[in-house]
Amino acid sequence: MINPDLLALFTTLKMAALTTIILLLIGTPLAWYLAKMQNRFKVIIEAIVALPLVLPPTVLGFYLLIAFSPQYLPGQLWQQATGQQLAFSFSAIVIGSVLYSMPFVVQPLQKAFEQLGEPLLEASAMLGANAMDRFFNIVLPITKASFITAASLGFAHTVGEFGVILMIGGNIPGETRVLSIALFDHVEAFDYAKAHILAISLLAGSMVLLASIYLFNSPRKKTINRVSK
Amino acid sequence: MTSPSLDLALSIDIQLCFEKFNLVIKQDLSLQGITGIFGHSGSGKSTLLRAIAGLEKDINGTIVLNDTSLINSKNKHFIKAERRNIGLVFQDSRLFPHLNVLDNLKFAAKRCKNRRLNFNEIIKLAELNNLLHKHVDELSGGQKQRVALARAILAEPKLLLLDEPLSALDRQAKTRLLKLMLNIQNKLQLPMLYVSHSLDELQQVCDKLLVLSQGKVIGYDGIHSMIHQLNYTQNNYTQNQYAQNNYAQTNNFIHQQTSLSLPIKTLNNGHGLTTLTLNEDTEIYLPALEENITGESLTGKNLRCFILANDISISLTEPINSSIVNHLFATISTISTVDNKVFITARCAKEDTEQEFFVSISAFSQQKLALEELQNVYLQFKAGAVRTYLY
Question: Is the CB of B82 less than 8 angstroms away from the CB of A128?
């Protein structure tokens, strides 16, 4: 039988990778929209996106738990579509993570899009590039560093998640038992040796990831800086 | 690479409302060669260019290029910038920072649907051979604008718009880019609309001139004729300022000047002067021009030049004992006085040809010489007063 901690590691990585992909797919258009938006609703959407930064994870987890339960519409719709209960499932912790890590992806992208501005987009349009062409050949390469930052922060933050997952996912091995919860289990069982291994691994992993981002985004490599010169 | 001459008819009837001013333009333009758009900051010239380019969306009215409607606000018809096949060179180059010079140029060439131009010939024409593998950050302002110009041309637009492309450049880089624009225009016959607040630059390269002031067209004519009309506008402008006791307003609308296009008789007369011919046999001298870098002979070709009204003085007798080399026999046509400045127009005529000159002198001098209309006088100006940017 597979080591439960390794299983937790696998579940964690799967959850974080999936969450990051989903966040990039929905966070990019949202960040673009916020960067270009000029009406008063902008601040409301920005506040909603930033809410997980200040809200206790248990508050978000509590409301998600209610929403995901079969008594309420989102949970009901999910059950009708998939035949399975949403609460305490892997899908639930991915949805929770997407909401919880949203600001870590949307904010760096929004800032990069705002900084990029219109000039280069106008210049490329005047050369015959349509909107998709402009996004893939101008926006994406110039804001590459911000995409890497957004993806890394989104991934790292999801790996470190605890409160939301505990509320909506519980502790089901292979399904919702992630590293942070496994660590909590070891501590509760006074198995400090195993807790140390997990804690040190999480600490070192996060450190390496963040150092890599800062190394990649050191001034010499910041493409976005060249735009503002 | 010479293309057939492309003449475009551009019909503009638009209104744009901004907080500080309204742009209301109703004008048909026949675009051949280079058409200048002149006006001061806030006159709406860049906005007009952006409207033609498709970068301004909130426009009321219509713009039609030949038979293609670019915008018609009534029908909610709007062709996007990328589908207009119009090029635009911006004031700030806007080169893509993640690409080197070559890739910036390729970006444009790849998106051109019917490629007719030879990529390498355009690079050679814009003198970019040595810069192709440089990063855009490494380029000087003039080099950046040469790349931007070449990039715009490689997209092979049917109309090229230039939005103050020289305003951030030094004199030397300006001259080089102006020559390049003329060279490109001659070789490719690409109609250009060139926006600038510098009348000097426009005088050097444009065939026609559209003048805007406070969001409205105040004139459209051939370049020399339009500049000469602006000389009178300047007079009215100054008069209004005095009428309103607006002495603090010191900006000129333009520097009054005589705008000329004269054939080169000799490039260097052996004394460091180039000789131009006026009215077939009158000679005008200016500091010797350099031979064209392309090796083409300049002799016989027309030279664009201008003489500021402040640089011409008047003598009642021929100033043969003066170091001033240019003295032209002329007849005074009009005299107008604004405050202590006197603005005089004088004609140098010979048989069927005549040239109008514009002179600004002090009221003191006018009284001293007792100048009157129809009086014969000598206009005198130093060789250095005949200005040109191109050689």
Answer: yes
